[in-house]
Amino acid sequence: MTRRRLLVADRVRATGGPADSNAVLVEGGKVVAVGSAATLRAPGVHEQSFVGATILPGLRDAHLHPVPYAALLTGVSLKTATDLADLADRLRGAAAKRPGAIVALRMDDETLAGRRLPTRADLDDAVADRPVLVHRYCGHVAVANSAALAQAGVTSATPDPPGGVIDRNEAGEPTGVLRETAIEIVSKALAGTAPVMQDDLLRALTALTSLGITSIGAMVRIGDGPWASLGNEAELLASVADRLPLRVHGFVIANSVGELDEGRSLLTGRSSRLRWAGLKRFADGSLGGHTAAMIDPFADAPHERGTMRLDDIDRTLAQHCFDLGGTVAIHAIGDLACRRVIDLFEDLGAAPGTARIEHASVIDPEDVRRMARLGIVGCVQPAFLGSEADWLEDRLGAERMPMAYPFASMVRDGVMLAAGSDSPVEPPDPWSGMALARDRNGIVPAEALDAEAALDLFTNGAAAALGESQPLAAGSQADLIVVDRDPITSTPDELRRTRVHHVLVGGEDIPIDPLIESWVD
Known about the structure:
This protein is about 30% helix and about 20% strand. By secondary structure, the chain is α/β, with parallel strands linked by helices. The N and C termini lie far apart (about 50 Å).
């Protein structure tokens, strides 16, 4: 006989629950009821009390790259490098500790002295005897040293790949800077040289549960792409399926029908906590790297409109994914990319809730209304507001700022919204993300969400985007958390200090390890 458990706190925040709810009854991994403890108490029911706490649905991060995130926690992060000398010192330190190629993440030219990308020469001065590949924090620009370019066979005669650019100097020689699909030329040559180990991935996922995250939309590759050096991400997830501490919904970043089918096979039937969710594709790049596809040029680069990456294969893959019953998630940051993705989904007749635009960072108001009308999910990243404040208006100009991250307009117009972090692009902390959805770091305050809508991004909205039932409803999976404050009455700054006391996934207690770091800068 399955034991019934009653979790009691000061309050429960659950959609559709009674206003005076302070308890959740759980049995067999499912929620039996949400209500008052006085009503739900019964003989034989084991009761756990959390004084001064709030019970919430488990939080969902609808867009996260788990293997690169694990690589960040165990590898080389450059986000806080102050200048090129500091960056070089960090690369030398990494080279002294490990053999083989050096792959570093989260380099940010906007915060380096001089505000410029390093070149192959800068990286050669740091490490010249082995390949080095440094990824900009957005993931859409990277820099390779001479050894990495040589291993990939990149010379002045190498053409730009479709959807990518190899930066060159006046003599036509590659500078080492690679944009969009050009990164893959080098990363594929380094494939598997910096693999993430099983225990490292599990440790990273455990760090997420300690933040209150019980489900993720995992963007995973088959073994190619800009992070090919990390190995076959789908295969790695499949190998730890029976040890996952949270639910993983895998979106396969595929370049062919065969890759999508392979990813689906790897992520299916291995564990109740791992499933294939669909396809991930890219329509453009990033605002920071000037590769987001824009209708009008960038304000600080008047001859640049970004890189449009949509082509015929996107239509083929999207249709195949829909035919398999999956969800199609397409990265689109610029307003032109968002428009073209909406066009594609409309042409394909995508059923409401089965098509997602990832990010939708800059989007025309009419396209917001089209998203709502067509039932296209917007998977947004409030965390971007925390890192783009110093340069966002430079990129867009004042007249386009109202189109930047228009969360409130999306909610008013009826767009189905979910939130993700895009980690390791940004920290995976959902409490900071919730706070940023509310205070927006001062960026276009009119687009701020209220407390209920901000919480919904990471609970009901994200659950729906991942194909899960309504959280904390009777009969749903008992994925819930106990935290030290009420996110509805807390200010954004108070919300950022939230601490998680207890986590359940499918009714199972998930140990919280405060010694595991969830972020490295």
